[in-house]
User: Which sequence fits this backbone?
């Protein structure tokens, strides 16, 4: 683990939402702060989404069936700092 940590000095989180047609509809970039375990929004990347169709294999990767194990930020004690909280 020490060798792995020495290779990187930043950790970024990319999140996305899937619409009813199983297409990516929103992409957000967050940077977590290890001091307070809050991920701060860096940028909304949704403007870079283009109209590409997904294959069934790609769809299974980005929108797995609910019975599969999904990673939830709460499991890692990471909070998301939303823009409205900054006001």
Assistant:
């Amino acid at each position: 683990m020490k060798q792995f940590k020495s290779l990187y000095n930043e950790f970024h989180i990319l999140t996305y939402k899937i619409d009813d047609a199983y297409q990516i509809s929103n992409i957000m970039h967050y940077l977590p702060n290890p001091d307070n375990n809050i991920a701060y929004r860096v940028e909304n990347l949704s403007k870079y989404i283009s109209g590409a169709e997904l294959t069934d294999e790609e769809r299974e990767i980005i929108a797995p069936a609910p019975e599969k194990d999904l990673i939830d930020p709460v499991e890692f004690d990471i909070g998301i700092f939303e823009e409205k909280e900054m006001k």
About this structure: The mean pLDDT is 78. The two ends are 38 Å apart (CA to CA).
